[in-house]
Amino acid sequence: MTTRSYRDSAALFARGQRVIPGGVNSPVRACRSVGVDPVFVAQGDGPHITDVDGNRYVDLIGSWGPLIMGHCQAEILDAIAETMSSGTTFGAPTEIEVRFAETICEAIPSIEKVRAVSSGTEATMSALRLARGFTGRAKIIKMDGGYHGHTDCLLVAAGSGAATLGIPGSAGVPEGAARDTIVVPYNDVAAVEAALAAAGDGPDGVAAVIVEPVAGNMGLVPPAEGYLQGLRDATARHGALLIFDEVITGFRVGYGGAQGHFGVTPDLTCVGKIVGGGLPAAAFGGRADIMDKLSPLGPVYQAGTLSGNPLAMAAGLKALEILHRPGTYERLEELGARLGAGLVAAARDAGLPHCLNRVGSVMTLFFCDGPVTDYASAKAADTARFATFFQAMRERGVFLPPSQYEAMFVSLAHDEAIIDEVIAAARESLAVAAA
Ligand code: PLP
């Protein structure tokens, strides 16, 4: 192992900090929780990225999920180029938007109608407004440690207790916005049931329960047996809508998303990341009777200058076409299983407390004994040890998500040899973290 230089990244970081808050356009990229400065990426190719100092890495971030085919996938680049030659945006309907909507509806049968937006944040924000407009109720329920983008009413933290009214999770979130959000632990149907009952069915009742069907933002935490069905039953009983935030899981854990994988049908679904094929696209959709409440048909307003952007639609459609080919998800499972097993064996051999949570090609290695089933148990992880592990992996040419509470993403561009390279680097890095 040679010691890497990050000199050019450091220079760009210094320049960036003068004109961009914290030098980054999204906070986790600053790598603060792992105690290093960020590297600046010059290019990606397949499963690799190269930084501006010429350091090459196996990429296990995949732009936080979208790049399920790896970087610079040739068919996707061609689709973008071909579409671009006819123009980049019109602000008027195009054929490719209709094809995108048809493809999403076909892939995820609970989505009878869908609207495209440009980010996951927009998708969840719009789905919640729609749920409130449809039900005439004010409150929403979210899970502690769940992340759905940075909309005010979703950027809230839990108080103490099984079900608490949210408190602002950021300066600038008004108490009023947080107060209509009830926060309950993930994997706890009884807490949801109790909160639904307590809120009642008047205007102050619960409009919707929003959940990542596989939690991906407290590290990866799969749903307990029966949890998602329990949410389905409880929301139906109390007249609230069930919203699956499949911004990570959609087209990741299966072509039909987590709802296909676990066989539970929500009322509304948000997708993002993969559906943009590496460009900014997301969408929300669901039951036609609910979706038809959207403007211009109904009274719930929602709009976007670049919604359904042709380049993003082209990239996303090509990604979905590739994912629909036979064997894709079996391959992702194979590669994910190989990496998961290798990490577990390496952590065991290093004598470290560990708990690997994995669904297909997405996983988190927690530095605690586990099981990790919710945010409270995730918080038992040793984040200082994770930081040491992250740094050692980076020195060895593996780029991990820079937080214990994020998930690693394997892509179709990874192969057995690359996974084995990652495992070998992990063996050394875990020994460093154990010292
Ligand atoms: N929902 C989930 C589950 C996410 O993981 C994210 C982002 O990571 C979002 C919503 C927000 O998406 P975006 O960053 O595109 O606004």
Question: What's the short version?
Answer:
The chain is an alpha/beta fold and 435 residues long.
What does it look like?
The strands form four sheets. The protein has an eight-stranded mixed β-sheet, sandwiched between helices. Strands 1-2-3-16 form a four-stranded mixed β-sheet. A three-stranded antiparallel β-sheet has the order 14-15-17, covered by helices on one side. The chain is built from 14 helices and 17 strands. It starts with 6 loop residues before the first helix and ends with a helix. The longest helix has 22 residues, at 328-349. Helices cover 37% and strands 16% of the residues. The radius of gyration is 21 Å and the shape is globular. It has helices spanning 7-19, 74-84, 95-107, 120-135, 175-179, 189-199, 227-238, 257-262, 288-291, 310-323, 328-349, 375-378, 383-395, 416-434; strands spanning 41-45, 48-51, 56-59, 113-117, 139-143, 156-157, 164-165, 167-168, 181-184, 206-211, 241-246, 268-271, 282-286, 355-359, 362-366, 398-399, 408-409. Strand 10, helix 7 and strand 11 (241-246) form a beta-alpha-beta unit. Helix 2 (74-84) packs antiparallel against helix 10 (310-323), helix 6 packs parallel to helix 7 (227-238) and helix 13 crosses helix 14. The protein has 435 residues and is of the alpha/beta class. Pyridoxal-5'-phosphate binds next to helix 4.
